[in-house]
C-alpha cells in the first residue's frame, strides 16, 4: 500500500511529483475542451473549422480519448503505489450520485437508441446506473473516481472518433418537437464531459483524499464564478457591439468661433461683438423622436419619459418610505405591529411587477383621466419602489449605534431634533445607496408601465412637463403661475424599456438596429445607476472601516 | 393597534398638537375618500392637510414630526392594502363565472371568449415549467456562486465578482427578453429545427439567468452570517477549508440558503417581460405536457399580452391570474422569511 | 509604574524608555533577558525570532522560546500583550486573518511549520485548539465529537458505509465515550448523545469542545482562555482537566487569571503590553521570585 511508504514528513506536501504534472495536464486539457465546447456551441468557432490540421471535432475526439486514458493511468498508478497519493477508502456520495446518473443516461440512450431495445431499455438504464454507482463507491477513492471519469472521457472520445456522433448527425426523439443535431450535441457533450473530467483531474492533482477533494470542489465552484463573470461581460459586450453603431449614427459635432454676445458701446458709437468658442453637438439617436422626415430616428421622447417617471416615482416613494422607516425604527415599539409591517414590505418587494401594473390599471387609471398617463406610471413605480425604500432605510437606521441617540438625548435634545441632526445624517449613505439601486430597478421596469403609462409605440415628441409660466389675469386670484404643465402629467408617455418592447412587438425585422441602440441606451442608463449605487456603498463601507 | 402605537410613541402631548394631529388626520382621510369616490375633488382636502401640517410644523415641530412620520407609515400600509383589495375585488367576476374551474379546468375550451371560458390551468403549467427550468439553472449555480464569494474567493476576486453579480441583477428584464428573443430563440430554432419559433425552454433559461443574482446575494448573506468561531473550531480540528464549508458552514446556513432559493423561485414565477417577449401566447397545454420546446403561456405573459384586448370577464380573469401570482409569491416570501428567522434563532442560540 | 496598562501598544513600543523608568529597564533590554529557560527533555515547540504584524501594528516582537512536551505551559499577561496572537501562531490559525503577517521560525518536533508546502490540515490534526468562548457545531453531541476523525477518514458511518461494509459505528461509540470521559463530561451527557450540542450549558459546551479536540488525537492542545466565559464550578472542572491532560499531551494555555496559571501550569511565560515576552521560567519561580521588576509588579497587581 502506498500509505505505508509515506513516513518521511507528514507535515510538508510535495507538489512536484510526476502525478502532479500528468493529472494537472489532464485537468487543463479537459477545461480547454469544455471551453471549446462553449465556443462551438455559440458558433464562435465552427465545429468543422480546422485548427493545426485537424477539425475541431476531431480534436474533441482525440482530446477526450487522451484525457480518458491518462486518468485511467493515474488511477492505476496511484493504486499500484507508483505515485504517492492519499486516497480515502471510498469516493463518497457525491461522485457516486453524479457518475451513477451519467451511467443511467448513457446506458439508457445506448440501449434504446443504438441497440434498439424498445421496451427493455429502462432495465438496461437502471443496470447501467447502479453498476457505475457501485464501481464508483466500492473501490478506494483513486480508482473509484478515475475509473468512471476516465471511462466516460474515453467513451466520448471513441464515439466522436468512430463517427457515431458527427456534426451532421441528427436524432429526433419520438416525443417532443426538437431535433438534436451534431452541431448542438457535440459541444454540449464536450462541455459536460470536459467539466466532469476536469473535476476528477483536479482531485487526482491534489493526490485524492482531503486535499484532492478540496481542489476538485474549488475547481467546480471557481469555474462557476468565472462563468457568471463571463456571462455579464458577454451580455454587456454583445449589446454594446450590436448597439453602438446605431446609437452613435449621425453624430455631428464641431467647435466654432462665433459671436457670443454683443452690445452697443456709446463712446465709440459702435456695436462691440465678443467672439468665443461654441461647441455644437448633435446626437440624433438621443435627441430626436421618430418622424418621417428624420435622417436618423431617435428615442428622445422615451428618454424624457423615463427621466420624468423616475423623478415622479422617487418624489413619491422617498418621503413616504423614509418617513415610514423613521417611524418604525425610532417611534414605534418593536413588536407585532413592526413585525407585520416588515413581513408585508418584504412580501411586497418580491411581488411581481405585473401585479403592480394590474393595480394601477384597476385603481389609478380610472381616477386619473381614464387613460394611461405619466402620473399613473409615476405612482405605480413609486409604489413599487416603496417597499425597497422602507427596507433599506430601516437597515440603515438600525445600523446607527444607539450611543448616538443616547448621547444626544443626554444633552436634553428632543427626539425629532435628535433624529434630524444625528440619526438621519448618519444613516444617509445607506438610504441613498438603497434609493439609487431602487432607481436602477424601476428605470428598467416594463410590465407596470405597459399597463398604465404608455400608448404611442413610436412617439415623435417628448412630453413637456416642465412649463414655467407666469402672467397676470383679470379674474381671481389675478395671477397665473405654473411651474409644471399638469395636463402633460395626464397624457400617455413613452419610456426606454417600453420603447424596446414596442419595437419587439412591432416585429424586430426592419428595426433591429434601432432596437439594439435602444437596448444599449437602456442598459447604460440602468447600469450607471447600479454602478453609482454599488460604488457609493463600497466607498461608505471603506470609510466606515477606517 | 396602530393608533395605540401612535399615542404610545407620542406620550403626553398638549391640546393644540392634538388638534393639529386630529385635523390633519381627518384631512388625509378625506383625501383618501375623495380619491376613491371622486378623484377630482381630492385636491381640496390635500390643500387643507398641507396647511394644517405647515402650521403644526411652525408651532410644534417636535410633535408634528412624529405625527407626520406616523402618517407616512399609515399611508404606506394603506397603499399596500389597496393593492391587495383591488386585485381581489377585480378578480371576483372571473371566479364567479368559472368557479374553481378557473384553476383546474384542463379540457377544451381552455381560454375562449365565445364561450366565456377562462381556465388558468395551462398558464399555471407554463409557469411551473419555466420556473422549474429556471431554478434548475439558478439554484445550483447561484448557491455555488455564493459559496465562492463568501468562503473561497481571495479578496481581489470577491471585489470583482460581487459587484458583477449585482450588475447582472441590474440588467432590465426587457433586455434579457430582447436577447432571448433575437439571439437565443433564433439559435435554438436553427439548431434544433424546431417547428415553432418560441419556446418555454428559452424563456426558462432567460428567467434562470435573471433569478441567478437573487439567489447569489441572499445565499451569500446567509453563508456570511455563520459565526467565524464555528469555522475556526472546525479548522483547528484539522478539517480542510472545503470540509469546513461542506460540514459546518453549509449545514449551519442551510435555512438561509433555502430561503434564497425560495426567493429565487418567487422572482422566476413573477418574471414578466422575458416570458412575454419570448413566448408564443397560446393559451393551451404543450403536447406532450413536458415538451418544453413549445411556446405556450405563463401567468405573467398572459396578463401582459391580453390586458389591452380584454374586457369584462376576460379582464377579470387576468386579475385572477394576478391574484394567483400575488398569493404564490407572498407565500414564498413569507415562507423564506420564516425559514430565515429560524436560522437566525438557531445560530443565535449558541451564544 | 502604574501607567503602562492602558496605552496603545505602538505608543508604548516607541516610548518604552519613558514608561519603564523605575529600574532602568527598557522593553528593548527586557525582551531577551530572562527567557533562556532550561528544562530536561525534548522541546515540543521551538520558537525563534517570531514577529507578527497586523497591518502596521507590530503585535509580537522577536519571541524566542522552547515549549517542553507533556506539560502545561501558561502564557500570561495583560490584555493586548500578544499572548493569544502567539498561541494562534503555533497552529497557524493566524493565516485566517487576512492582514496578519508572520516572520520567524516555529518548529514542531524539529520541523519548521512556517515554510512553503506545509499541510495545514496535518499540522492542525497534531496541534488542536480550544477557543475562548465555546464554539460547538450545531450538530448532535456525538457528531461534534466524531467530527475530526470523520474528516480525517478514520470514522465512516451511514448508509453508504454500511452498504460498502465499512461501518465504524462501534468505533465511533468507543471514541465518543473515551473522549467525553477524558473531558469529564460523559456522566452528564451519556443519555443524550443525539441531542444538539447547542442545548448544553456554557461549561458543558467548553468541555465538549475539549473532548472534540481530544477525539482527533492531537499531540498538542492550545487553549485560549478556556475558562474565561465560565462560572467558578465549571472553571475548576476545566482546570482539573488541564492538569490531567498534561500527562499525555502538551498543553499551552493562555490566561489572564494569574491564580489559574499558578494552579495549573508547570512553566509560565509572561508577556507584557506591546507584544514582548519578558520572562519565561518555572511557574514557582515566576510567581515567587521573578527576575524582572516589571513582572513582579504585574504579578503583585501593581498594574495590569
UniProtKB/TrEMBL annotation, chain A:
Belongs to the binding-protein-dependent transport system permease family. CysTW subfamily. PROSITE patterns: ABC_TM1. GO terms for cellular component: plasma membrane. The keyword Coiled coil does not apply. This is Phosphate transport system permease protein PstA. Gene3D superfamilies: MetI-like. Residues 303-533 form the ABC transmembrane type-1 domain. InterPro entries: MetI-like, MetI-like_sf, Phosphate_PstA. It comes from the Archaea. CDD domains: TM_PBP2. GO terms for molecular function: phosphate transmembrane transporter activity. PANTHER family: PHOSPHATE TRANSPORT SYSTEM PERMEASE PROTEIN PSTA-RELATED. It is found in: Cell membrane.
Automatic annotation (TrEMBL), chain B:
GO terms for biological process: phosphate ion transport. The chain crosses the membrane at residues 20-38, 43-60, 66-89, 123-149, 169-188, 200-219, 317-339. The keyword Acyltransferase does not apply. It comes from the Archaea. The keyword Aminoacyl-tRNA synthetase does not apply. One of its GO terms (molecular function) is phosphate transmembrane transporter activity. Pfam families: BPD_transp_1. It is found in: Cell membrane. Belongs to the binding-protein-dependent transport system permease family. CysTW subfamily. PANTHER family: PHOSPHATE TRANSPORT SYSTEM PERMEASE PROTEIN PST, PHOSPHATE TRANSPORT SYSTEM PERMEASE PROTEIN PSTC. Part of the binding-protein-dependent transport system for phosphate; probably responsible for the translocation of the substrate across the membrane. This is Phosphate transport system permease protein.
TrEMBL record, chain C:
SMART domains: AAA (SM00382). One of its GO terms (molecular function) is ATP binding. CDD domains: ABC_PstB_phosphate_transporter (cd03260). Keywords: ATP-binding, Cell membrane, Membrane, Nucleotide-binding, Transport. One of its GO terms (biological process) is phosphate ion transmembrane transport. Pfam families: ABC_tran (PF00005). One of its GO terms (cellular component) is membrane. The keyword Signal does not apply. The keyword Nucleotide-binding applies. Residues 1-23 are annotated as: Disordered. This is Phosphate ABC transporter ATP-binding protein. The lineage of its organism: Archaea, Methanobacteriati, Methanobacteriota, Stenosarchaea group, Halobacteria.
